[in-house]
Amino acid sequence: xxxxxxxxxxxxxxxxxxxxxxxxxxxxRVFGYDRFRGQQEAIISRVLAGGDAFxxxxxxxxxxxxxxxxxxxxxxxxxxxxxxxxLMQDQVSALRQLGxxxxxxxxxxxxxxxxRVEQQVEAGALDLLYVAPERLLTDRTLALxxxxxxxxxAIDEAHCVSQWGHDFREEYLFLAVxxxxxxxxxxxxxxxxxxxxxxxxxxxxLRLEDAELFVAGFDRPNIRYRVEQKTNTKAQxxxxxxxxxxxxxxxxxxxxxxxxxxxxxxxxxxxxxALPYHAGMDAAARQRNQDRFQxxxxxxxxxxxxxxxxxxxxxxxxxxHLDIPKSVEAYYQETGRAGRDGLPADAWMLYGLGDVALMxxxxxxxxxxxxxxxxxxxxLNALLGYCETAGCRRQxxxxxxxxxxxxxxxxxxxxxxxxxxxxxTLAARKALFCxxxxxxRFGVTYLCDVLTGTLNPRVAGLGHDRVSAFGGGKELSGxxxxxxxxxxxxxxxxxxxxxxxxxxxxxxxxMQVLRGQDAVPLRKDPLxxxxxxxxxxxLALESTTTPADAALWEALRELRKELAQEAELPPFVIFHDxxxxxxxxxxxxxxxxxxxxSGLGDRKVQRYxxxxxxxxxxxxxxxxxxxxx
Length: 629
Ligand code: ADP
Ligand code: ZN
Hints:
By secondary structure, the chain is an alpha/beta fold. Strands 3-4-2-5-6-1-7 form a 7-stranded parallel sheet, with helices on both faces. Strands 8-13-12-9-11-10 form a 6-stranded parallel sheet. α5 links the parallel β3 and β4 (about 130).
């Protein structure tokens, strides 16, 4: 897009109203969107006025627009620093689809290609330049930028500066050089990681003391949060996929590489389009699977947390956790990869006592110092609190991120099917008493047997059929006792030893319960509901749609696939699902009407409008099929 096509740039004396109009105009004409989301407008205004900004926004919140739009409006090139080389190609392609002049500089370019990009930068022929941090920090690139006209710097994934985080990149520590060498150029730092420690590190290390902080709503209302008791992982996963996501793209997270392989193989054998991804695979195979996930429709990736940063696919319909994540932050970031397009998506987790034992063991074996371990333990406990809550899950999550949400959300499992609670004080005391009477040397299965009076050889052999706890809990089933023990662990009354045997030991807080000093409300685990209504196989369409809508939806997807293949781009770079959905419901019949659809800017209407109209007209009741046009 030529900047001269817009009103001439006089940043200093531009009237605010005029600027607002310009922003809206570009939003509409270039990006095809009606309105700004959340704080986008405020952030962009800040940057257009020449100020720095620190943007905390959840994944899918719309961060890119915050630097892309001002880069189009300000004179000079907007420099985007990103560690995700693999994504630059797609981002640049997507921008070019919108008619923006974009390029990237990274190690995948030949010297000749890189030189051409450098010439474009210097000639002022680019709106946006994506560059890897190591590339940016070379003398050559810094000198190039010093000779060129610059619109802004956007430091994406700014949490990579944090030495505490798992995405740490050493080069990020040197990005303060931008502040020193280019003091007049506005800088934006952007991240989806929100905890206070990381925030402080970003401000300090990137020298963002003068940046205005924008914390966007962390709520992701289209994501439905659910946690199920783990009984049979594979059967539960199969049921979830078959009944709710038979054709959708999604991510299945597992803790270990081995399990990742196992689940991926099993799913593939069951006929699903599933691929593994973990750090133990060779780089080429990993990249291949990531590319297929990104580019094909309906791929399920089974991955460890190694898979994540840099997944920029808007139509991920579910994120399934087969093991509990490390912390609430990790969980939020992982689930945040679902439903970036704003359409309904599921965050679905299986959780059981075995997970807790495993996490404790990993913590116990970690070589980190005590302070670090203590933080990790607190984080794990917060996550367990989330898993066990009888209240709204979204409220728990948002409270964790410091946001208030007075009303329950209505879109999580506990809101949709309220969990009953019961006074578990007596049961808790019996359970703790049983653990104590047997010497705090046993795991949950054994203790449940003792409580229910199940005489197996082991119990008999150790003489535990003669203690008073034996058979003292016949009012509950073994399964119900297991639920009590799990909750006592989550509540911190028992700890699971990190020894690998799942030995349960009583904590000081547990001693208080045992002495009858504390009441213990517990939740009743809902039964797994097999009869849950099957969702439509058709992706992302409301249940009110007609068969004709479904057929049109399929036809539009088919067209998108063809266009994507022709352009050698992932389908979502051509149109998002949300755009297809609007087309299905609104059925525009003219190029002008197409412009009303979210996601269709001038350039896309020009390029793809005729093909879209051809498909749409074939489905219109008021128009004859366009046979001779
Ligand atoms: P983030 O980088 O914060 O994870 P993105 O920048 O990828 O999020 O944006 C997420 C999705 O929201 C993208 O599909 C983007 O096109 C869309 N989006 C961003 N801003 C708007 C807006 N104002 N109106 C409609 N859709 C938007
Ligand atoms: Zn809720």
